[in-house]
Backbone:
């Protein structure tokens, strides 16, 4: 309480948005594009996934969290999962937020390793070319 500043601003170019994400200690992002950019920013982040019929978005969120939280301690994993799910389901955020803040140093370090791991993957264009070559 009393430690949050909300500053509205105009839309940013992608480069400027990336720079903003790099400067923030925790990024709350919505949608897939910002979600990807937040992962590359290596800061702690929370993803608000777009709602889908029959709560299909929660299946997608759970699948991401299962993969993303590998390598975190049990308390770090639980803190990340609880905040992401609570943020996306409208539950009471107090406990989830407190646990996330306690785990933030571990989660931030984990995000550095996560981004490094993502960088080892081939880019989508190369992967698509390789996939198509195997079919032709």
Residues:
């Amino acid at each position: 309480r009393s430690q949050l500043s909300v500053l509205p601003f105009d839309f940013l170019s992608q480069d400027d948005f990336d720079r903003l994400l790099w400067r923030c200690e925790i990024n709350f992002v919505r949608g897939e594009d910002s979600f990807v950019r937040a992962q590359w920013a290596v800061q702690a982040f929370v993803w608000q996934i777009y709602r889908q019929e029959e709560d299909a978005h929660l299946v997608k969120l759970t699948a991401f969290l299962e993969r993303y939280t590998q390598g975190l301690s049990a308390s770090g994993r639980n803190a990340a999962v609880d905040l992401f799910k609570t943020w996306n389901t409208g539950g009471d955020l107090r406990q989830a937020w407190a646990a996330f803040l306690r785990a933030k140093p571990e989660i931030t370090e984990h995000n550095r390793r996560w981004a490094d791991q993502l960088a080892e993957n081939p880019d989508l264009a190369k992967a698509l070319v390789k996939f198509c070559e195997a079919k032709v």
The two ends are 59 Å apart (CA to CA). Residues 94-120 form the longest helix (27 residues). The chain has a mean pLDDT of 93. Helices lie at 14-23, 32-40, 56-68, 74-89, 94-120, 124-135.
